């Protein structure tokens, strides 16, 4: 498959949106093919997979990727445009001010350190106090609220039950960053060895696992993979 304007336009759309659902990705490709494609055939989900694979061949050498991920809290699949460098936060330097980037780091830190990886809106806005310095005024809360809305739209965060959670873009893009910088806090699923942002805790021991991993596991066995006691937590 040649790399065409369809691929270029789809990459631009994914980059602009940051995070798109599987259905949205198909709708985007359909619209793009109508404009740039040389066929009257309506694209399918398999065509989206092929287009993404071709794009990734082009952009992977530049530490970029369109990743496909299942986001457990929404039970929805997403395509996420991500940077693969060790500290992808710094790549936004030409988009946000140093103060705004610092606020983003503070949000990531506090979400990571909170017991359930959630923060209320008030807590997020109050974190602007952590952006003060001897010669720097704190980030205005009005600007912080704008940033939170923008970062939610890009998929860095999601709001569920009036609380901010890690969004699909943060889960994919910052998994290595958070695992490295908060090694004592972030845990890994004992079934897939991938960092857990959202999981299910065993009723008999402290073990936490990905819900999807656990569903597959419980098709074969009925006990906790850690303590071997009967699994009793509903999924």
Automatic annotation (TrEMBL):
<dbReference type="InterPro" id="IPR013083">
    <property type="entry name" value="Znf_RING/FYVE/PHD"/>
</dbReference>
<dbReference type="Pfam" id="PF08746">
    <property type="entry name" value="zf-RING-like"/>
</dbReference>
<keyword id="KW-0227">DNA damage</keyword>
<dbReference type="Pfam" id="PF07574">
    <property type="entry name" value="SMC_Nse1"/>
</dbReference>
<protein>
    <recommendedName>
        <fullName>Non-structural maintenance of chromosomes element 1 homolog</fullName>
        <ecNumber>2.3.2.27</ecNumber>
    </recommendedName>
</protein>
<dbReference type="GO" id="GO:0000724">
    <property type="term" value="P:double-strand break repair via homologous recombination"/>
</dbReference>
<keyword id="KW-0479">Metal-binding</keyword>
<comment type="similarity">
    <text>Belongs to the NSE1 family.</text>
</comment>
<keyword id="KW-0833">Ubl conjugation pathway</keyword>
<keyword id="KW-0234">DNA repair</keyword>
<keyword id="KW-0158">Chromosome</keyword>
<dbReference type="GO" id="GO:0008270">
    <property type="term" value="F:zinc ion binding"/>
</dbReference>
<dbReference type="InterPro" id="IPR002219">
    <property type="entry name" value="PKC_DAG/PE"/>
</dbReference>
<dbReference type="GO" id="GO:0005634">
    <property type="term" value="C:nucleus"/>
</dbReference>
<dbReference type="InterPro" id="IPR036388">
    <property type="entry name" value="WH-like_DNA-bd_sf"/>
</dbReference>
<dbReference type="GO" id="GO:0061630">
    <property type="term" value="F:ubiquitin protein ligase activity"/>
</dbReference>
<keyword id="KW-0233">DNA recombination</keyword>
<dbReference type="InterPro" id="IPR011513">
    <property type="entry name" value="Nse1"/>
</dbReference>
<keyword id="KW-0863">Zinc-finger</keyword>
<keyword id="KW-0808">Transferase</keyword>
<keyword id="KW-0539">Nucleus</keyword>
<comment type="subunit">
    <text>Component of the Smc5-Smc6 complex.</text>
</comment>
<keyword id="KW-0862">Zinc</keyword>
<dbReference type="InterPro" id="IPR014857">
    <property type="entry name" value="Nse1_RING_C4HC3-type"/>
</dbReference>
<keyword id="KW-0832">Ubl conjugation</keyword>
<dbReference type="GO" id="GO:0030915">
    <property type="term" value="C:Smc5-Smc6 complex"/>
</dbReference>
């Amino acid at each position: 498959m040649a790399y065409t304007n369809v691929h270029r336009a789809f990459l631009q759309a994914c980059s602009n949106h940051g995070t798109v659902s599987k259905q949205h990705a198909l709708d985007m490709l359909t619209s793009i093919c109508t404009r740039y494609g040389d066929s009257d055939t309506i694209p399918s989900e398999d065509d989206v997979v092929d287009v993404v694979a071709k794009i990734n061949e082009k952009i992977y050498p530049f530490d970029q990727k369109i990743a496909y991920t299942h986001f457990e809290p929404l039970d929805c699949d997403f395509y996420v445009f991500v940077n693969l460098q060790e500290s992808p936060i710094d790549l936004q330097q030409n988009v946000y001010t140093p103060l705004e980037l610092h606020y983003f780091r503070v949000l990531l830190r506090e979400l990571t350190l909170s017991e359930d990886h959630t923060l209320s809106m008030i807590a997020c806005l109050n974190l602007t106090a952590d952006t003060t310095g001897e010669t720097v005024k704190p980030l205005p809360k009005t600007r912080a609220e704008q940033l939170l809305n923008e970062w939610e739209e890009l998929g860095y965060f999601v709001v569920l039950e009036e609380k901010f959670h890690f969004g699909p873009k943060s889960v994919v893009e910052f998994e290595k960053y958070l695992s490295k910088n908060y090694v004592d806090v972030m845990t890994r699923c004992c079934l897939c060895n991938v960092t857990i942002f959202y999981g299910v805790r065993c009723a008999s021991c402290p073990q936490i696992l990905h819900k999807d991993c656990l569903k597959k596991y419980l098709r074969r066995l009925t006990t906790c993979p850690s303590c071997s006691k009967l699994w009793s937590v509903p999924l």
